[in-house]
Structures are given as C-alpha cells and as structure tokens.
Design goal:
This protein has 170 residues and is an alpha/beta fold. It has five helices and five strands, in the order αβαβαββααβ.
Amino acid sequence: MRQSLYWDDFLHRAEETVDCIKNNQQIPVRRVAVFVTQKCNLSCAYCNSVNRPLEMSQSVFENIVHKYGKSAIIHLTGGEPSTVEWLYPYLESHKDEARFHLNTNAIITPPYKAVKRLKVSLDSCNAEYWDELVGRKGSFDKVVENIKKSIPHTVVSITFTMTHENYRTI
C-alpha cells in the first residue's frame, strides 16, 4: 500500500479490506491507537475522566512500535501524552522507525518534527474563555504558540469538542 495520511484514504483501505475478505487473507493493520496514559495536565470543565496516574510502560510501547511501526500509523492519545516523561524523547529519537501521529493539548511543546500528524485540542477561539474552561491561565496563548511552531514541520489539525459549555459560542 502506498503511504498516505490515514484519514485521507478510506476508499483505498475499504477496497483492500474487501479484497482480503474475498481472498480469505488477513486484513492488514493500518492504524494502531495507543492510549499511553490517563493523566492530564489540565482540568477541563467538560471532562468526565478521573485524573488517574495510569500510564503505559516504555517497554510495552516499544513492543507496539516494533510490531507495527513499519506497517501502521502509531496514533498516540490519552489523557494527555505529554505527561508521560519518556514519551517525547522516545519519539524524537525513534522518528524514523514509525509514522507517529499525536493527539495533544499542546500545553507542552510537542515533538512536531517527530510526528507526521499533530492533532491539537482547542475548544474555543476566545483566550480568556478557553483558559477558564481548561483551568489554567495563559494556556490558550501557549497552545497557539505551539501550533504555530509545529505548522512548518508537520500536518496540524485542530480538534474541537462541542460541549454544553461552549456550543452557543461556536
């Protein structure tokens, strides 16, 4: 299969899946979502998740990269992946071993040169409101700064969660 951005090539993958089923072959794994932690560095008003200190060990993560890194996108999410101390240094030193995609709130500067796609959560374009929503003053400006740093180096998507707190201001 040719290299593509995962979300941009559904038709090809659907045809590939149908062909595998018709030929009684195993369907290839193209994307592996890895929930590396439940921790977060924000306290968003809309988040129902309890902030637990659970995180994946580096050795388990390395096994996933070893098994799927050459054939699938390794999509990192959580909680907030930047709270895992070993993760960003690992991504930077192993960027050629896999296609890493990253979901992050971008409070901490992401390893934008080590990921092929960066998805940043930004649930308002009003700085004051967003800082209040996530429970940390100055966060909006830091996230926007990190988005701007990342754009020249990787594909950046901004995700938006519509909630009962923000739906009227969209």
